[in-house]
Design brief:
By secondary structure, the chain is α/β, with parallel strands linked by helices. It has 12 helices and 9 strands. Strands 4-3-2-5-6-9-7 form a 7-stranded mixed β-sheet, sandwiched between helices. The structure holds S-adenosylmethionine. S-adenosylmethionine binds next to strand 1, helix 3 and strand 3.
Length: 286
């Protein structure tokens, strides 16, 4: 049986269909806010399930929009959801979801880029936190990098289940030697085990984006190699900024050949051949 949230008058969770919600609250998608909505509860439930058992978990969601994924998280048993949404037009619709699940949904109006997520996680009374989101494409990478390079480790989250454009998902999960390998692959590989769980075609979204999307699941490593995340980010950025050049050239401003020799890395190699462990060594040698 298909669980229809987009068409008929009733839905599996007892709330109005999302198409009605969008119409009633005038939530025409804004490109500037990266709005591509998911209206199918089967699909949003699949994302919620990819986040694992949520019954004892507080889920932090970025960009609930009209509430498709939020509703799936709650319907699939999340103990609590804290959702940060920048578009004030969505707040009324989200208040209705809140009313339907008393005490389980807190909506925080505001900009995710200005939100202290670790502090937010500290308000959950000790319950484990997972992040789940269909991220706005224009800030998705920036948020992921912040979550990967957080000062405290283990981090405030147990896992992240996030939608990205397929091409970005490939960069997050890339291995050394591949064209997609770069700063994102190094940072994600350093601190997490990351994998693509499934693809989502453009036509699943309203409005459809130009490209395929993918859901990525990231689980923090218990003991990542010790280094400074911000510095690792800067080094990889420099190294891959000129990815076809030898490292002695691309990291010249950071110490060039002498730095590479100190780190025990052949200065004639190129960035894409270095493992995560070698990038950590290079960072620690700076
Ligand atoms: N979760 C909904 C879904 O799956 O249908 C909407 C996802 S849509 C791709 C991205 C959402 O992020 C939109 O609701 C948009 O308003 C919100 N958003 C965009 N920029 C934001 C920001 N800086 N902070 C918080 N939310 C933001």
């Amino acid at each position: 049986m298909r669980l229809d949230l987009s068409g008929g008058r009733t839905t599996i969770d007892g709330l109005p269909p999302l198409r009605d919600v969008i119409e009633r609250h005038g939530l025409q998608a804004k490109k500037s806010l990266g709005q591509n909505f998911l209206l199918d509860l089967n699909l949003t439930s699949k994302i919620a399930r990819a986040a694992g058992d949520l019954s004892e978990t507080t889920v932090i969601e970025v960009g609930p929009g009209p509430g498709g994924l939020t509703r799936a998280l709650l319907f699939n048993g999340a103990k609590r959801v804290i959702a940060v949404e920048r578009d004030e037009r969505c707040l009324e619709a989200l208040a209705q979801v809140s009313g339907h699940y008393p005490g389980r949904l807190e909506v925080i109006p505001g900009d995710a880029l200005k939100t202290d997520f670790a502090a937010l996680a500290g308000t959950t009374g000790g319950s484990p936190v997972k992040i789940a989101a269909n991220l706005p494409y224009n800030i998705g990478t920036e948020l992921l990098i912040r979550w990967l390079t957080t000062a405290d480790w283990p981090p405030f989250y147990q896992s992240m289940t996030l939608m990205f454009q397929r091409e970005v998902a490939e960069r997050i999960t890339a291995s050394p030697g591949s064209d997609a390998y770069g700063r994102l692959g190094v940072l994600a590989g350093w601190r997490t085990e990351a994998k693509i769980v499934f693809d989502v075609p453009p036509q699943a979204f309203t409005p459809p984006p130009k490209v395929t999307s993918s859901v990525v699941h990231l689980v923090p490593r218990a003991s990542p190699l010790p280094t400074d995340g911000k510095r690792l980010g800067r080094i990889t950025e420099a190294a891959f900024g000129q990815r076809r050049k030898m490292l002695r050239q691309s990291v010249k401003s950071l110490g060039g050949e002498a730095l590479l020799t100190r780190a025990g890395i052949d200065p004639t190699r190129r960035a894409e051949t270095l493992s995560v462990e070698e990038f950590v060594r290079l960072t620690n040698a700076v």
